[in-house]
Every structure is written in C-alpha cells, then in structure tokens.
Amino acid sequence: SDIGSQKERVVTEEEWLQKWEMGNIGFHKEQGHPLLQKYLDVLLNGRSGLRIFFPLCGKAVEMKWLADMGHSVIGVEVSEQAVKDFFSEHSLPYCEEPVPEISGAKMFQSTSGNISLYCCSIYDLSSSIVGKFDGVWDRGALVAVNPRDRQRYASLMIDLVEKNSSYLLVTVSYDPNKHKGPPFYVPESEVKSLFG
C-alpha cells in the first residue's frame, strides 16, 4: 500500500501526553461524532446491554451517551488527564484502582459501574484483563496508531471482540505525501488486509 512518507513516522507516547497537557486536542469532538449517530443501528444491531470498547478513547462524549442507553463502556487511554477530564466534564463520580496485571496502569470506573476507563498503553490490554466486546467504536484509534504498529493493533482488536460483534471504524482519506499525520492515512485495501 502506498502511504507515502508516513510509513516510518512514529508518534511517541510522550508526544500524545504533551498534546493533552497543552490542550492540543483538535481531534476531540465536543458534540460527539455524527457518524456514530448515523450508524448506531449497525453497532447495536438491535441488541441492548452491550459491552462496547473505545480504543484510545480520550474523553469521547459518546462514552457517556452509550452508557446512558444502558450499555457498558470500556475505554483505554494513555493520558490520565483525558480520563479525569471525561469524568469531571460529565460530573460523574468515579473510583480509581490499580490494574494488578499491568504495571503502573490504573482503572477509573464510574460509581454506577457502567463506564470503565483503563489508563495505560492499549498494547498492555488483553481479553484476559478486559474480557471480550460486542461492539467497538474506533473513531480515531487506527488512524492514530503508528503505521508500523497497525498489524499489532488489528491483531489485538480481533482478539478483543466476540464472534458476532460490530466494529465501526472511521478513517480519513487524503494524500499522505502532503500531511505527515496523525491522523494517518489508512487505505481501504489495508483495512481489508488488517481485518479480513
């Protein structure tokens, strides 16, 4: 696949943390993403009480929206500030506890118990820690993952979903030689080779 000069580009965990610290989070959508509303029926497929995963969740407002509908929302985010901002901006009380299986990781859970956000690298997660999911809302994760890590990311995501799950993926299309990313350009052919 031709992803131009992006192939070797690496954005470090420190750079992502710095984006949150500096408030350089143009990728965050205050009103939620219109594509989730448009394709919500595809994600839910007539089912209720789903376990829905938000990879690289930031402080996505859709997490509260889906939890309010009766679903369990589980997210992972490297920035503790983003996770705490999510709970404070929605006035949600939460508790914080260590994740014994992952050194240095914390899990922030709403007092109501239906939103659990893991603060760690996504690559530290496994289905033995977080279980399996009925749905995934990948609005900015695959396009944020370093191009060299896409196969690793896709393998993890495939491991985390149930057989009959729904996976909504948002990508962006542009000339990768004119923008260094992120968001990175992920051609449709690569999405198909990653996820089958």
UniProtKB/TrEMBL annotation:
One of its GO terms (cellular component) is cytoplasm. GO terms for molecular function: thiopurine S-methyltransferase activity. Pfam families: TPMT. The keyword Transferase applies. It comes from the Eukaryota. Its EC number is 2.1.1.67. It is found in: Cytoplasm. It is an enzyme of class 2 (transferase). Keywords: Cytoplasm, Methyltransferase, S-adenosyl-L-methionine, Transferase. It catalyses: S-adenosyl-L-methionine + a thiopurine = S-adenosyl-L-homocysteine + a thiopurine S-methylether. GO terms for biological process: methylation. S-adenosyl-L-methionine binds at residues 16-27, 56, 77, 121-122, 139. Belongs to the class I-like SAM-binding methyltransferase superfamily. TPMT family. This is thiopurine S-methyltransferase. The lineage of its organism: Eukaryota, Metazoa, Chordata, Craniata, Vertebrata.
